[in-house]
Structures are given as C-alpha cells and as structure tokens.
Design a protein that fits this description.
With about 475 residues, the chain is α/β, with parallel strands linked by helices. It has one domain. It has 13 helices and twelve strands. The longest helix is centred in the middle third of the chain and has 25 residues.
Amino acid sequence: MGHNHKVSRRNFLGQASCAAIGATTVFSTLFNLKTLNAAASFNSSIGAMPGDYKALVCLLNAGGIDSFNMLVPRNTAAYNQYAETRSTVALPQDYLKAINPLVSDGNQYGLHPSMVRMQAMFEANKLAFVSNVGTLVRPITRQQFYEGSVPIPLGLYSHADQVMHWQTGVPNMRVGQGWGGKMADLMISANQNQTISMNISLSGSNVFQTGENSVEYSLHPEEGSIGIYDYNNQNWAFNQLKRVAIDGLVNPVYQNVFKNTYRKTIKSAIDGNEILSAAIDSAPIFNVPFTQNSDLSKSFEMIAKTISGREQLQMSRQIFFVEYGGWDHHDELLDNQAAMLTELDNALYQFNAAMEQMGIADKVTTFSLSEFSRTLTSNGNGTDHAWGGNVFVMGGAVNGRRIFGNFPSLVLGNSNPLEIGGGSLIPTTSADEYFAELALWYGVPASDIATLFPNIGYFYDPMSNSNPVGFLNFG
C-alpha cells in the first residue's frame, strides 16, 4: 500500500476546490474571495492553434525528499566520498541502478535501486534530472550566506514556507497565488471550453494552482468528477429538495455581483461535472494497467483519462497537480524511501506508457517539486531539512538521458564552497530557472515570465534566445 494518505470520498470532499463542490462547501467555500473575479471577461492575446495541445503535470513530493539518495555518484572516488559523508544512510554501491548520461561531467551516476523503471526511461531519453536546484532570491556564496549580505528565502528550512515558495515562485515573500494559477490567468483564452478550469487537481485545493482569476477543479483519484454532492442522487426526498433548491439558485441572473458570481460558480460545477464525467467515462483501456492499490497510480490514471478526453473537453492547455506526501524521513529513511520510490517509479512508468499509447508523450511534461532536499549527513537513522536537491522531468519533449545543472561535491566543510553546515548545500540552479523553462515550453510569452517569477532577472534573461536550463525541446 502507498505511504501517502488514502483519499476517501469523505476526505476528498473536505479538501476539494470550489469547482468540485461537496455538501459541506455549497454555502461556505463558494464565497472564497478568489472566485469573485471569475465572472469577469478575460482579455488575452495568448491563444493556441487547433490541435496544439500541451499539458504540465506537477508532482509535489511533499515533506522534503532525500534526493541525494535518488541520484548518486557511483564511480569509485565520488562514491567513496558519498559513502563517507552519508554514513549510515548511504546506499551500497553495487545496489545502484547504473545510468549513462549523454553528456559527462567526469563522474558516473546511478539511481536508487527502487527506481528500475525510471532508469529505463532515462536510458531511453524520456527522463532527465536537474541537479542541486533550490529556492533562491539572489545568487549567493557561502561567505555571503554567513555574512547575511544577500537575502535568502523566508523560512529556509521550514516546511510551510518552503513548500509555499516552490508553488508560488516568490521565495522572498509569503503570497497566496501560485505560478500554475498565474499561468492559467495569462492563458485563459487558449481553451475553447471555459466551463472547466485549465488547472485540475488530484489533491484538492493547493497554492500552486491558485491565481488571480483562476481556481483549480478537483477530481477524485478513483471517482473522477464528483460535482455537487448528491445533486444527481434522487433516491431520497431530501436530495430531490436539494436539487430543486440549487436549480433555483442557478437559473436566475442576479444584479448583485456577489450573488451572480455565486450562481455562476455553482452552475460551472454542475455543467463541468457533466462534461468531465462523460470525457473520463470514454477513456480507453490502457495497455499498461495502473496499480489499483496505490493512490499515486490512481491519481495518474485519472489524469491520463482526463487527457484522453482533451478534444471532447475542447482543451488546448491543461495543468495537473498531484501531491505525494510522506517524504519527511527524519527516521527509518532507507526502508521508507525504498517503498515510496517503488510506488513513485511504477506510477511514472504507467503514466508515461499511457501517454505513449495515446501518441501525445511529447505534449505532456511531468515534473517534480519538493520543498527542500535533506542533509547530506545522517542523524543516525534519517536525515534532516536542508536546501538544494535534485528533481526530475519526464516526457517526450524532455532532452532525456542528461543531468542538467551541476551535481555538487558531497564533501563536508570548508573545502566545499556550497556546504553551509550540517550537510546543507547552496543551490546552483534557482527554482526560478527550472520553473521558467516549463512555463516557456507551455506557451507563456517571454515578456510575461518576470510577471510569474519576479526574481528571474537575477538568474536568466527571459528575452534571450537560450533556454533557462535546457531540459526541454521547444521545437
């Protein structure tokens, strides 16, 4: 069974967004201020040509994944340094799954032994890593960090702050809008169907998909689009009365902007539920079956089913969000991570197979986030909160079989200019650069990149002709 929390129907309804309304949210959540501008008309010069479909799938590995046991140096000298530094949490050298990057930095690398499918996808040019990525306000050296002369992200080792910064792209402020939501605001006109949000979540409400005018539409990993709880269930007189009452709300057009927005949001939930349910029900049978005792696999299966209905839904652009929690391994790191990486490895393989079966692998890019990596040093049986770490990107548009960024030295102390104590590393690639590449591939104009990521100019010129990092093929 998966280590992430089981998503029961009751729990899902409790965390679902305004767009997929549960019984407890009909008369409360709908007044959330972020929906009040939803009735306004959207003016945007951004559009997509017919058939020009692209989707981003954001996988949040919540809790802080120990990514230096995910991607590991395996040549003798580098591995020996890794083993010395990591001590009790080091993986045996002969357990590593060897990879052969197309571009060498002089070291050899391997993946965690649970990442069997990801090893194969890497070798087949379908997956890449970006090394030592983290939230940065400005480029910073170790001396500047010690001096406090350059600003650092707020709440550097805090789960709450760092998971927010990765979702907002604004590490020097606590803000409530995410860069996925802001992208949906910018590109709202790309989709012909305005009933269903460009942002679809398999993990309920989240900061990443919250915009000025955008709100995510929540799907249940197993049941798909639930809509208004018991709206279509006419088996009980109370449910019939509820439906009559709701229909009475949505049919009139109110002069009051608050009432009218409330009406439109409920109507959108009803209409969107019908459209999405029909699209999901017509999904193909996938040649590679998804694991049914894994919440993560079921979430990716629901994304695949939704993507299969993209033409029926009249969608040219979609952003999906999945949270896979439980990576805060202060204890029992080796056993817990082995089990969780197996679940992750299988889910990614199954999803990629579904995209290839539908012939759109090059149109769908899956990318990982985590609030921080873990300390290189062991606390005895686990690792603690750190800073820079490794992420992965998967899909047909990925320049695969490569490690982008700079894999850091794992030496501790003064001889390592990135190590700031306790085995925490200063990132050498900013999260802004990582995000900007994804946004540009998705279709956000270069002129709007600084709107999404206010600090990007310290790391990359959006108006240049080069990609921020290089892991995506824009052709």
